[in-house]
Amino acid sequence: MTTATPTSEARERLLRTASALFYAEGIRGVGVDRVVAEAGVTRATFYRHFPGKQDLVVAYLRGVDATVRERAGEVPADAAAAAGWLRALTSLVGDTVCGVGFRGCAFINAAAEHPDPASAVRQAVRVHREWLEGSVRTALTTVGHPEPADAARRWLVLRDGAMVAGYLADPVQAQAALDAGVAELIAAAGQPVG
């Protein structure tokens, strides 16, 4: 039996504050004291909800993961609809890359700051990436791609590249390259590109 994480207004305020700060300034650059001060809670309140900073970071990443999953939705069982789902997911990535205040992928950024693959932070990153790759693989299988696992890995690399290039260079070019690469993956399955 899974126990749900208790929610409270103070916990949500801590998480909102930390999420904004972690994304804008980096995880290591933001301490618990700053999160507590900007959230307007006491240290005791913080520790009542999060045993430590790493727990807050994991909750932040789980929140980003839940938002992406909700926006993506389920992969449809119909081939044409699954191709549309993949295009929509790719557009979601492109919209993110071109969005105001874009500072890279929250998961790539977190992994860069937490090099230990066994850490809880890296495990949260891995869960998101496995879901993402698995969902894309399911969509590509549904559309009839001859090598859906390989194509899903390529999609993830295209997505990662667009996320990094969108932050470091021209986000419009990054989105265009992502769109072109995904169009090739969909075309390889015999589905209409547009």
Strand content: under 5%
CATH superfamily of the largest domain, please?
Tetracycline Repressor, domain 2
What's the alpha carbon Rg, rounded to whole Å? 18 Å
Beginning-to-end CA distance, first to last residue:
44 Å
From the coordinates shown, what is the CATH architecture of the largest domain?
Orthogonal Bundle
Overall mean pLDDT: 93
- Helix count, per DSSP? 9
H/E element sequence = HHHHHHHHH
- The beta-strand count equals 0
Give the biggest sheet: none
What low-confidence regions span 5 or more consecutive residues with pLDDT below 50?
Answer: none
Helix content: over 70%
> Which fold does the CATH topology of the largest domain refer to?
Tetracycline Repressor, domain 2
CATH class of the largest domain: Mainly Alpha
- Total tally of structural domains: 2
Q: What is the molecular shape?
A: elongated
Oligomeric state of the chains present here: single chain
Quickly give the structural class. Answer: mainly alpha
